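subagent[fold] <- orchestrator: predict structure for attached chain, return tokens only, no commentary.
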Amino acid sequence: MGVLVLAMSACGGGSTTTTSTSSAPSATPATASATQGTDADPEGFRREVAGYGNGELLAVQPETWAGTICEMFEIGATNASVALYVKSGLNKEHRASAPSGVNGWSDFDTGSLVYFSVQYYCPEYLPALES
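subagent[fold] -> orchestrator:
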């Protein structure tokens, strides 16, 4: 359910607009371990990511993205802006790893990474995925 809501929001299902031209995380992004709370489940995250599709998300440094995603929610970013940032970064840095190849990462792929990151590393932001 959360992935669907996130994917719909990233497709423009919400009224949030962003003009950010940001791409991949900075050269020194936080890793998920640096931002994880006491409820973090790195092993569960890794299993979920490995089981998604054919494991394509494993090729995109998912723990680094999870840290960035949690930090973005921590500073008040919206679900739509996080999804857009992640999709832009994945398509810039990891297009060849995308399930669709040259077409890049879909909103659903991006939404899945965001959802898994929040679910396993910063579950306090799960309500933000519903907005």
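orchestrator: received. Logging for downstream: The first helix runs from residue 2 to 13. The two ends are 13 Å apart (CA to CA).
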